């Protein structure tokens, strides 16, 4: 993971050289390896990316908590990485995962993308729910210790 790589090598070479943003993060899109459904978008720092590569399980960096976290560490809904790709200029990561457990979203849904934005209509935007059934009870899964 080097900062001294040429544009040609970055775009056409075989070296992994992720371009982290000013906060030291890179965007990661996680999709279901079997269906192709987008499950979630999160961020990784260098440590999360390294751990994901080394363990084959998804690790992320929480911007709100300012902390590294392993997907499923509290819910048990682990993501096993089947394939990892970087985009052309290596500033985004795409992981195809096998999702264990009923859902990836902290709201209890299978995917974080359960609302549709209608396009092509002027005026106020009203979100529409799509595939929005809860797959699990988030209050039971993410209970805070007493």
3D architecture notes:
By secondary structure, this protein is α+β, with helices and mostly antiparallel strands. The chain has a single domain (7-141), classed as Phosphoribosyl-AMP cyclohydrolase (Ubiquitin-like (UB roll), Roll). The protein is 14% helix and 29% strand. The protein has three helices and eight strands; from the N terminus they run H-E-E-H-E-E-E-E-E-E-H. It has helices at residues 7-12, 46-55, 138-141, and strands at 26-32, 38-44, 59-62, 67-70, 79-86, 92-99, 115-116, 128-129. The strands form three sheets. It has a four-stranded mixed beta sheet. It has a two-stranded antiparallel ribbon with strand order 3-4. Strand 5 (79-86) and strand 6 form a beta hairpin. The chain starts with 6 loop residues before the first helix and ends in a 5-residue tail after the last helix. The model has no long low-confidence stretch (mean pLDDT 94).
- Could you tell me the mean pLDDT? 94
In CATH, the topology is named Ubiquitin-like (UB roll)
Overall 3D shape: globular
Assigned CATH architecture = Roll
Highlighted features:
29% strand; two-stranded antiparallel sheet; single chain; alpha+beta; Ubiquitin-like (UB roll); 146 residues; 4-stranded mixed beta sheet
